[in-house]
Amino acid sequence: MQKRWVLKPGGDPEKATSLAAALGVGPALAELLIQRDVNTFAEARAFFRPELSNLHDPFLMKDMDLAVARIFRALENKEKILVYGDYDVDGTTAVALVYTFLKDELGHSLIDFYIPDRYGEGYGISFKSVDYASDNGFGLVIALDCGIKAIEKVAKGKEVGVDYIICDHHRPGEFLPEAVAVLDAKRLDCDYPFKELSGCGVGFKLIQALAATKKIPFEVLHKYLDLVVVSIASDIVPITGENRILAYYGLRLLNHNPRPGFEAILKFSNVNRKVDSNGLAPMNSGTLNGLEEGNESFIFSRELSISDLVFLLGPRINAAGRIESGRNSVELLICQDAAKAELIGEQINDFNTTRRDLDSTTTDMAMDSIKTLPRLRSARSTVVYNPDWHKGVIGIVASRLIESYYRPTIVLTQSSGLITGSARSIKDFDIYDAIDECSDLLEHFGGHKYAAGLSMKPENLDAFIEKFEAVATRMITDDMLTPEVEIDLEINLNAINQKFLRVLKQFAPFGPGNMSPVFQTKGVIDNGYGRVVGKNHLKLTIGHPEIASNPFPAIAFQQGDHFPYINSGKPFDICYHIEENEWNGKKDIQLNIKDIKISSAE
C-alpha cells in the first residue's frame, strides 16, 4: 500500500543547540526531545528518569473522597463487595488489581469479582449483573473500565439496594449515572491534571487513595504496576504524563519479577526468561516487529517492551473473554501459585489458538464481502455485516481490514437479537464522534477516538450504514485515505553510533504520544548481498555512496517487492527505526525499515 511520508517541521535550532550542550548529546537527539516537549535539562531528567513521587495526588480526581469513604464504610460494616470489570485486558487487569488490594492489603474477605459474558450480557454493566449483586447480598459494586454510561443499570441498582462506584476512562455522555462516586478524569467537572489513564490506571488511583488514607506505604503498591503497564499497552492510551511513569516502573517489574500469571503467559508466548544470580531476569533487547498478534514461532530472550505486551500478553489475556469467559483471565492474574497459574495459562493459550483460527477465517470472509459489495468500491468507510461472525474477533478483523483498505471500519455481527459491532479508525478521523452523529439509530455505543463498540436493532442497519458513510464522506479528505508515515528527523547514516543508540533507548517506553522515532535517509544503497527472506521480507546491508560511514544491517518486513530495484545497485530512500539486534551473543545496530521509495536523486 502506497504511503505518504510526512517530515515533522524543524524546531528552533538555537534551542536544540543549547539543549544538546546541556545534555552532552548531538543536535539530532536534542531535536527529538524538543519534539516531545522536553526543552530543559530538568525536563530531560524527568523524562529519562521517571519518578513515582511525581504521580498526582489521587484526591485531585472528582469524587475520590466519596469513593474512599464508601469503601471504608463497607469494610467497617462487613458488607459484601463485588469488583466488576469489562472482559478485555484493561478490564480484567483492573479487576485483578482492585480485588487483590482489597483482599490482601485491607483484609476484606467478603469480596468477589464479576466479568460479564461477552455474548449473553455484552459490554459494560448489565441488568443481569445488577440482579446477581442484589440476589447475592452485595451492597457495593466497584465497576472498572466501564459504567460511565450505565445510567439505567445504576438506577436499578439503587432501587434494589446496591451502591455503585464507577471507575472509568471512557468519554461520558450528557448525563452521569447516579452512583455513589464517578471516577473519570474525562468528566467535564473533573480537574484531575492527567486525562488519559487506562481503566486499570483509574483503579490504581483508587487503591493509591485507599492506601494513603490507611497509611499503607506507597511501596506496597509497586507490585501492582505490572497489571497497570499491561493495561496501558493493550488499551493503546498515550504513554505520556502519569502513564509514562506507571509504564516505566511496570515494565521493570514485569521484566524482573512478574506475577505467576504473567510468567505463565510468557512461557506459552515462547519467551525464554533467564534469571541471574540476584534473582532478576535480564533480557537482551531485540525486535518483535512483523509478527502477528499472539502468533510467535520462535523462542527469544530479551527485555520486554510495550509492543511485546501488545503482541504477546494482550491477545492471550483477551482470548479468554473472546472464546469463553474473561473470568479465566482474572483467575490467572490473581493466582499466586506457579503450578496452578501454568495450568490456567495453558488453557488461555489454547483459547488464543482458537481465536487466531476464527480471526483468520472471519478476515477472509470479510475481505470477500468487500470485493462483492459495489457500495464499498468508492466508499470512504467500510461497514460489513454477517450474522454468523464470531463476536469475539470482530474488533481484530476491523483492524485487519484497515491494513488492507485503510478506511474507518466497522465489522458487525448478530448477538442476543441485536446487531453489534466493533469500530476501528484511521489517523485524524474520530470514529467515536462519527458514531455519535448516528446515535439516534443505536441502542448503545462507547469508546475512544480510534476504537469503539456499538449495537443497534436489525431494522436500523441500512440506515446506519448510509448515515455513517455520509459522515465519513463529509469529514475525510483525500489525503487522509493514504496511510501516513510520520518522520521525526532526516539524518545521515554517519550520525548513528553506539552512543546515539544508548541515548535513544532511554526514550522508552515507546507508545502513543512517545512513539519510537522514525528517521529518514535519502540516497542509500545495498552492498549487493541483499536478499528476500521469510514471507517477502528484505535482509539488506545499507550504506551511503557519498558519505563515509559504516554500513548497517537492515530488515524490511513485507517489502520484498522492492528487491529487483534495490538489487540493481541504484539509490533509494528509506525511513526506519534504529534498534539493537542480538544474534549468537553479538549485539549490532540494525535499521528496521518501515518504508522504501525510489530515491529522489533518480
Describe this structure in words.
The chain contains 19 helices and 19 strands. By secondary structure, the protein is an alpha/beta fold. It folds into four domains: 161 residues, Beta Barrel (OB fold (Dihydrolipoamide Acetyltransferase, E2P)), CATH 2.40.50; 202 residues, inorganic pyrophosphatase (n-terminal core); 98 residues, no CATH class; 121 residues, Diaminopimelate Epimerase, Chain A, domain 1. The strands form four sheets. The chain has a five-stranded parallel beta sheet with strand order 3-2-4-5-6, with helices on both faces. α9 packs across α12. It starts with a strand and ends with a strand. About 4% of the residues have low confidence.
